[in-house]
Amino acid sequence: MKHGIINRYLMREITGIFVLGLTIFTLVLLMGRMVKLMEMVVANGVPLAEVLRLIVLLLPSFLVLTIPMAFLLAVLLAFGRLSSDNEITVLKASGLSLGALLPPVLLTATAAALLTLFISVEAVPWGNTGFKQMTMDVARKYAASAIRERIFRDDLPNIVLYVDQYDEARRTMQRVMIQDSRDAERPLTIFAKSGLISSDDGTGVLRILLKNGTIHTQQKDDYRLISFGEYLLTAESGRSTPLVRTEMDLGIGELRSGIASSKVSPQTRLKMATELHSRFAFPFATFVFAILALPLGLSNRRSGKGSGFTISILILLVYYVLLSFLRTLAEKGGISPVLAVWLPNLTFLSIGLLLLRLASQEMTIRSALVRLFRFGRTA
Question: 188: which strand partners?
């Protein structure tokens, strides 16, 4: 009964900080995309509801990273607070060993790892594919709405569009300038007094009907000036190409099929193999961070929450820099994808087990090094 009360107490402590950390880390990563997403609302007139749907589709790829990050922070801060408030000392005085503190940590780590595994295997390919598809659909649907007065629009392939005045309701333009460089040998510069723009929601093709203008073209030494009453210009919106799926958009079955297929290039197979193992390595990192954070949190008695947050950021920085470096090597064929993805986990797990053993013997890293140095001198 005593163990059950303590386990629930520790799990509540970890869970509360975990939810807060998960929210903060996810929002920080999401901020990088929020600028472009909000630009869609302001510049292109995309409804806020559709932008929120895009954010939901983005979340799985962020949560795979932020759940292990938040769990590391939660265990560090939870046990750091218990140590600084001498609650750990009281628990030890009541007869509880370090091993008795592991079950609630591992149980919460299991729940977090299973959640991460589900998101990694099922939600990530769904979210990535859905985000790409919806981005293309939104761009096609609101292609004509991206025009703003006295601003050069250069998102159309090889076309720059400038409009002095624009009536969004009627989609009419006044004093239009277009630089058409789709034919590199014969670029066109078009000026028109007015124009009307429309778009095909299915293909994203823009149709620009220009009225009362001139076309300036020059090919080598041949310069031509053409006047027109009406001129119809069609342009791709840049989003009408078929959806291209990368290894990050594929499910587990598709990744395995691609790795086994001889039709796929060797470099792509390496990327697929690296991504396949990453789908399982990230969830396992939750256990690694749990083992590593427990002894570090117990040793953090006087530094407070600021120190725990700093330690977690340093650990995460080293972990993801090492993982990114090894993944790059694996994708270029310099190292096995299995070793590249799992080596950071194995390295940090070994460090965590060593620190856990030292903590069970009431030893710090410094005292262990001093003892090892003295043993080397006597030997």
Answer: 180, 217
Q: Answer yes or no: are the C-beta atoms of 318 and 104 closer than 8 Å.
A: no
Helix (H, G, I), strand (E, B) or coil at 143: helix
Rounded to an integer, what distance in angstroms lies between the CA atom of residue 298 and that of residue 336? 36
What is the reported pLDDT for 375? 46
Tell me which residue of 19, 26, 1 sits closest to 78, measured CA to CA. Answer: 19
Counting beta carbons within 10 angstroms of the beta carbon of residue 96, is it exposed (0 to 12), middle (13 to 18) or buried (19 or more)?
Answer: middle
- Ranges of the chain whose pLDDT falls below 50: 1, 372, 375-376
The pLDDT of residue 363 is: 63
Give the 3-state secondary structure of residue 61: helix
Interstrand relation of 159-167 and 205-219 (parallel, antiparallel or unpaired)? unpaired
Per-residue b/e over 241-273, b at no fewer than 16 CB within 10 Å? eeeeeebbbbeeeebeebbeeeeeeeebbbbbb
For residue 205, the one-letter residue type is: V
3-state secondary structure labels for all residues of 297-351: HHHCCCCHHHHHHHHHHHHHHHHHHHHHHHHHHHHCCCCCHHHHHHHHHHHHHHH
Q: What is the pLDDT of residue 303?
A: 53
Residues near 186 by beta carbon (within 8 Å), at least 6 away in sequence: 217, 219
Query: Among all chains, which residue has been given the structure tokens 């799990």?
Result: 11
State the Cα–Cα distance between residues 49 and 55, nearest whole angstrom.
Answer: 10
The DSSP string of 79-104 is HHHHHHTTHHHHHHHTT--GGGGHHH
CA angle 66, 268, 280 (to 5 degrees): 35
Residue type, 105: V
CA–CA distance, 379 with 145 (Å, rounded to integer):
80
Cβ atoms of 102 and 293 within 8 Å: the answer is: no
Helix (H) or strand (E) holding 167, with range, is strand 159-167
In this prediction the pTM is 0.76
